[in-house]
Amino acid sequence: MTNFGGDKTMDVGLLEEMDFDNANIDWEFIETILKELPSNIYFKDTQCRYLFCTHYWNHIVHDDTEAWSIRGKTDMEIRKDKENARKAYEEDKKLLKTGIGCKYVIETCIDGVTEFLEIIKNPVKNKDGRIIGIVGLINIVTDRIKLQKQLEAYAQTDIMTGLFNRRYLEYWEENEIKPQYFPISIIAADCDRLKHTNDTYGHHVGDEMIRSAAQLLKDVLADQAVMFRMGGDEFLMILTNTDEIQVQNIVDRLREKMKQTYVKGIPLSISFGVCTMKDMITDIENAIYIADKRMYREKEEKSMLKQ
User: Where in the numbering of this chain does the PAC domain appear (predicted)?
Assistant: First the structure.
């Protein structure tokens, strides 16, 4: 951030318009105090124009000359990120209309650098209770938000495979099933004879088998599916806007890729089961149950062939 610069004199007409009791407020003294704080503190009039700002930052278009000032300018005039400038203006107008302050976080990407800014705004009222402006505070909270997102990812992700975990499946079922996503197809998958692999070659080989199975799913499905490790060697894939024929073609591709995959010289073997939901009438838990049953039926058939 660059320290506040420019003309230090206040437009008395603006002050009278704002109905301050004292038009001779020493803004330079106020700014001198406030700019020592790490946060960016600003004040806007009822037209959403800046009257002062303790710091300039790289999110605005300005020059470093003494003649340039933020005073009298709006976010739409000076912000590089026009989407967030519009959001700032909309939040300002809402605050001026309702008299209720707000707090939110925005994501910006300026000059290739992503930052998260926390914006806090409150109305300023005169002695008669009339709103005369907006006081705001901007904090850079990038480290906090990145840590929060990292913790959320840890809570939703299976560490061994990098796929989503069962906990995130519960969230997805509650929040992501929407009419425009149908038909939705479910693929249940399970590594074959993993107990035999663990007993014969050791659990480290069994773990490698699980990781290889997860990688196969990622390689074939890429961004087509939301993928979960349900526990042990069980996996679940949800494919939106995918009908019965499409999902069967995908399973065929998974099987072809599987035939080319070996772990420590051991062929990777996975059983699959599918179920397609045509509309929201079908319960997703029931669809998962059907896909599981079909997957276990395939496992049994493979087991019988080996006998």
Answer: 100-153
In the chain, the number of structural domains is 2
Q: What is the DSSP string of the chain?
A: -EEP-S-----HHHHHHHT-S-TT--HHHHHHHHTTSSSEEEEE-TTS-EEEESEE-TTB----STT---TT--HHHHBS-HHHHHHHHHHHHHHHHH---EEEEEEEEETTEEEEEEEEEEEEE-TTS-EEEEEEEEEE-HHHHHHHHHHHHHHHB-TTT-SB-HHHHHHHHHHS--GGG-SEEEEEEEETTHHHHHHHH-HHHHHHHHHHHHHHHHHHHGGG-EEEEEETTEEEEEETT--HHHHHHHHHHHHHHHHT-EETTEEP-EEEEEEEE-STTS-HHHHHHHHHHHHHHHHHHHHHHH-
Q: Where is average pLDDT lowest: 71-80, 147-156, 175-184?
A: 147-156
Alpha-carbon distance 301 to 266, whole Å? Answer: 20
pLDDT-derived band of residue 25, with 50, 70 and 90 as boundaries?
low
Residues 129 and 204 in one domain: no
CATH number reported for the structural domain that contains residue 246 in this entry: 3.30.70.270
